[in-house]
Amino acid sequence: MEFLENAGLYVAIIGASLAVALACAGSGRGAGIVGESAAGVISEDPKKFSSCLILQILPCTQGLYGLVIWFYALITLEVIGGSPEALTFGEGLGYCFACLPMGIGGYFTAIAQGRCAAAGVSLIAKRPGELSKGIIMAVMVEFFAILCLLASFLMLLFI
Prior knowledge:
Blueprint: H1 2-5, H2 7-44, H3 49-57, H4 61-76, H5 89-126, H6 131-157
């Protein structure tokens, strides 16, 4: 019976968990894509390690954004630093859906950014002085991850 009384809170926590889990899964996949490309370049020229590392770090930010949404949701729910109150199932769904833009958007933008950054690795393999262009192309994808972060944050703020 206690489960049904707290179902709304559980659904909200599932939503917060999806925000961080999906965003981190996408970041891991994106960073892996870049790492695969970078390993080949570094095997030919170890001096390009730092340039490759910069490009590999870029898709990792979505995981951080997912963690921010997870943390903010749990603070808002008073799971962290408080005593959580019971939520109706509908309220729990509201929290869950508010977290999904960051989770789903973070997953797909991290993978897309990883592919773009991997192309940047190919660019610096042939033209080491063009690192900034590779970064700019990958950062363009970051804009959409930031929009996902903003959407989830604003929805959580106004629940």
